[in-house]
Amino acid sequence: MSTYAIGDVQGCYTAFRKLLDLVYFDPGHDKLWLVGDIVNRGPESLEMLRFVKQSGDAVITVLGNHDLHLLMVNAGIARCDKGDTIQSIFNAPDREELLFWLRNQQLFYNKGEYAMVHAGLLPAWSVPKAAKLAQEVESALRRDDYQKIFSQLYGNEPDYWQDSWTGAERLRVIINAMTRMRACSPDGHMNFSYKGPLQTVPAGYMPWFDVPHRASLDSTIICGHWSALGLYTTDRVVALDSGCVWNGQLSAMRLEDRKVFQIPCDKEIMIGC
């Protein structure tokens, strides 16, 4: 059995299936870990969502910011942005079934030496603490009144963590860190506007994974979200978003030996929201 972690697919289902063929993925024996953003911006969000849902235990995915955006639009809290490609999901006969399944996925996953999150972890969060915080968000997303909760989750403030946060503020910080963060200050203040390459991180900030003595250093964190960073691996971080939807590559790592597999992603016609 092999476990393959794969970067942001964002609706590029054709490229995704080519990558599975490249690694000879066998759903009867192998596992896939997806770092989130399985939908949006690419042309085949519906196909991708259906595949992951139908794959059962063979695939584990965590929620990314684009996945949450889809749920927010469906709940009437957000509008489609220019470049969104999620209308096919809203038109699908199995729309409600698909979106209910997505709303019940995890925000964070860990097993053995690895932990997986879409964007990152704040410096004060150990892996066990991150798992508990993620469960708070997951429980809120699964409630019958989830639309009310969604209406309170957008925003950039607070941009740091403290244990005393409660209610919507607490959930917002957890979601923003785990699905949106790229850089933060050494004391954990997040910068949400920065999207550039590693070499141009603004003064006073650093990549979240470079903060000295962060509490999650005892695990290797698998993440995505930062396409300008590209494929980036160290002993303690595996960043797999290599910009497939931006004509880059789709990347996978076999966790047993950390071998990397990549395929080029050709530009395809987008179908807007």
Describe, in plain words, how this protein is organized in 3D.
- With 273 residues, this protein is α/β, with parallel strands linked by helices.
- A hairpin with a 3-residue loop joins strand 10 and strand 11.
- Helix content is 28%, strand content 17%.
- Strands 3-2-1-12-13 form a 5-stranded mixed β-sheet, covered by helices on one side. Strands 4-5-9-11-10 form a 5-stranded mixed β-sheet, with helices on one face.
- It is built from 8 helices and 13 strands.
- Helix 6 packs across helix 8.
- It is globular.
- Largest sheet composition: 5 strands, mixed
| Estimated radius of gyration | 17 Å
Strand order of the largest sheet: 3-2-1-12-13
End-to-end separation in angstroms reads 39 Å
- Topology as H/E string? EHEHEHHHEEHHHEEEEEEEE
Chain-averaged pLDDT: 96
What global shape is seen? Answer: globular
User: Which stretches are poorly predicted, pLDDT < 50 over at least 5 residues?
Assistant: none
Strand content: 15-25%
Total strands: the figure is: 13
Number of helices: 8
Quickly give the structural class: alpha/beta
Helix percent reads: 25-40%
